[in-house]
Specification:
This protein has helices at 2-14, 16-40, 48-57, 63-87, 91-99, 115-144, 150-187, 198-215, 218-227, 233-238, 240-254, 260-290. By secondary structure, it is mainly α.
Length: 291
């Protein structure tokens, strides 16, 4: 019996590479089928009224979608957490980079014991969000992808790298153009010299970078919505006056100062991004009509 068990274990160990290869081959085959299905499978067509009627009369039908959304949300949160932890290694250098417009980190004076810790965490969170933003977009896109047509899925995947490009462009605009204009006004208002605290300065800078970066995502969002058939370029072009008013309100919220120069400095690129979104929506509609 002992010899029989020995040979059984020996052949089990000897066949381990074959089992691993078979397991990998099966996984690759399933992955290829899933990718092929993702790019070719047509969704089931349902009228919006019928879908709402089903959701109202049978709420249990929404449970699989809520469970899928929960899985996507948890994966996105996990990647955001990991990216934030990884950002701890470069947060001090990025903090010094953010403090350059006022003369470096030595120009800041903390008056609370926990202030440097909160500043460090705020910078790490901004870096973690910027790094994990493409993956967060990917998870949200994969959640809605089953309801899209194959062409819309392929176009939606193009937003995976572009979402980071637009966000970084917005952060660069805020750092290199908005901050040099706003800080002299804020730090010497009415001739009163201000020595900023780390907490107030970093909260101000990170909020400015964050919201400006998000606002630069507008053309990409409009293009994707037009590709999915949710918005139309004609509607956006027709209501451009209302859009300018909304942009002015948004610029007033984002602008760190009360002077009109900085507000116009924010409004100009946002207005250009709006009309760029209208142009991209026309391109998306032409592509849909061509199909």
């Amino acid at each position: 019996m002992a010899i029989k068990n020995f040979f059984r274990r020996f052949f089990h160990w000897l066949a381990a590479p074959l089992r691993a290869w078979r397991w990998a081959a099966r996984g690759l085959h399933r992955w290829r089928k899933a990718v092929h299905r993702f790019f070719t499978e047509e969704p089931e067509e349902h009228a919006l009224g019928d879908a709402l009627d089903v959701a109202l009369h049978d709420p249990k039908a929404l449970l699989p979608h809520l469970a899928a959304f929960r899985r996507h949300l948890l994966r996105a949160a996990a990647v955001f957490l990991l990216a934030t932890l990884a950002a701890f290694a470069v947060a001090p250098r990025f903090l010094d980079f953010l403090a350059r417009p006022i003369g470096g980190i030595g120009s800041l004076q903390a008056i609370e014991v926990t202030e440097p810790v909160s500043v460090f965490m705020r910078v790490a969170l901004l870096l973690g969000f910027a790094v994990s933003l493409p993956y967060i977009y990917l998870e949200l896109f994969l959640f809605i992808a089953p309801g899209l047509r194959p062409r819309a899925r392929r176009i939606g995947l193009l937003g995976f790298p572009l979402v980071l490009v637009f966000f970084l462009a917005g952060m660069a605009f805020a750092y290199f153009l908005m901050l040099p204009t706003a800080l002299p006004f804020l730090l010497n208002f009415m001739g009163i010299h201000t020595v900023p605290r780390p907490d107030s300065y970093i909260r101000f800078v990170t909020s400015l970078l964050f919201w400006t970066g998000l606002s630069f995502e507008f053309p990409l969002v409009i293009y994707l919505l037009a590709t999915f058939g949710i918005v139309r370029a004609e509607t956006l072009q027709k209501h451009w006056r209302e859009a300018i008013v909304a942009i002015a309100v948004l610029a007033a919220v984002i602008t760190p100062t009360v002077d009109p120069v900085n507000m116009l400095l924010v409004m100009a690129p946002l207005t250009g991004l709006y009309f760029l979104g209208v142009l991209l929506a026309k391109v998306a509609e032409r592509g849909r009509r061509g199909k």
